[in-house]
Design brief:
Elements (H helix, E strand, L loop, with lengths): L3 E2 L3 H5 L7 H14 L13 H19 L1 H13 L9 E2 H6 L19 E5 L11 H21 L3 E6 L6 H14 L5 E5 L7 H5 E2 L5 H5 L5 H4 L1 E3 L4 E4 L8 H4 L3 H13 L2 E5 L8 H5 L5 E7 L5 H9 L6 E7 L11
Parallel strand pairs: 3-7, 4-9, 4-10, 5-8, 5-9, 10-11
Antiparallel strand pairs: 1-2, 3-6, 7-8
Helix pairs in contact: 2-3, 3-4, 6-7
Length: about 325
């Protein structure tokens, strides 16, 4: 019986075409755990039928890619696939039974996942800290809303910003990226877009090599800046080296090319952006994204400042606001 996949088997398991059997084994166990009973994937609002269907697809993908003859047959069928209605669907009836409609190969990634440089955590993030259980639950809820919006409307490039510096957008956006990559099994890239005062990655993650500023200056290629974070499915691009000209780079045409390239190769592109005030950077970035999440530090940011900042953003792209560090009672003049 023919059925369709939005992703081919390699994408379903999250492995490259030249993955080893060990890579396939590990990817299968990781992917299977996402949809098992009690998994964090429950936050994704999958129905029981949807969850079971994904588990069956993962099983079939694993059996195919682990069997030399089946894998060879599958690869040959993919190689012969031709464009069909502009989609990337694969008709398994066509592949295994010689019937149905062919479908094209997905676009090649920027670089096979195994080729990315490695990055490591140097400090524990909130979602992994047992003492931050309440915050972790709220971050998971935020991630589930973004995942649901992605499935319903296709939003995948999300900007995180705030009215002022120091409201927690960097920490919240990094935690959200981690959850989307690990709990929801998404291929996520987190990008430090505040080239004036980057802060999110240097405190939590160690990664060598060039960053976004080097790409925008023409000193490095985009794929050279991408780092894979400890086999989590999360990739990061740091801001890069700062100099007096870095502040002007975000307004160049290269920023559009970077985001377009990442959007083609990742499920989610999360941007840790500069604050709205007093800079013009965010007004440039918001034109390139699908959605905006606004972070407010509870008890510190004046309501009028928040109101003016939100009103300056494109309403059709505004996803919502996150109140960071909230308590039961707050001064009426502050959020």
């Amino acid at each position: 019986m023919s059925f369709f996949l939005k992703k081919n088997y390699y994408e379903a398991l999250g492995v490259s075409f030249d993955a080893s059997q060990e890579d396939i084994d590990q990817a299968f166990e990781r992917a299977k755990s996402l949809f098992s009973e009690g998994s964090e994937a429950a936050y994704s609002l999958y129905s029981e039928d949807e969850r079971q269907g994904r588990l069956e697809t993962l099983e079939e993908a694993y059996k195919t890619l682990s069997n030399r003859d089946r894998k060879k047959e599958y690869d040959e069928a993919l190689a012969k696939a031709t464009p069909h209605d502009g989609t990337y669907e694969v008709d398994l009836g066509y592949i295994f039974a010689g019937q149905g409609n062919a479908a094209p190969l997905p676009p090649e990634p920027v670089r096979p996942a195994r080729g990315y440089r490695k990055a490591v955590f140097t400090k524990q993030i909130s979602v992994l800290d047992k003492s931050e259980a309440v915050a972790a639950e709220q971050l998971k809820l935020l991630s589930s809303k973004l995942e649901l919006a992605n499935r319903k409307t296709g939003q995948k490039v999300i900007a995180f910003t705030s009215a002022l510096k120091g409201e927690g957008k960097s920490v919240i956006s990094l935690n959200t990226a981690f959850i989307l990559a690990t709990a929801f099994g998404k291929n996520v890239v987190f990008v430090e877009c505040d080239l004036r005062k980057p802060s999110s990655l240097q405190e939590y993650i160690s990664a060598d090599g060039p960053g976004l500023s080097e790409v925008l200056k023409g000193e490095a290629k985009l794929d050279e800046t991408i780092c894979s974070l400890e086999d989590t499915g999360l990739h990061i691009i740091k801001a890069g080296a700062y100099n007096e000209n870095s502040a002007d780079l975000i307004g160049t045409a290269g920023t559009f090319e970077v985001i377009r390239g990442l959007k083609q190769n990742f499920d989610f592109v999360l941007l840790d952006c500069p604050p709205v005030i007093p800079l013009a950077d965010m007004s440039i970035i918001e034109k390139l994204v699908d959605g905006i999440v606004f972070i407010v530090r509870a008890g510190e940011t004046a309501k009028e400042l928040v109101k003016n900042s939100v009103e300056s953003l494109e309403k059709k792209k505004f996803i919502g606001a996150v109140l960071n560090g909230a308590e039961t009672k707050l001064d009426k003049y502050y959020y």
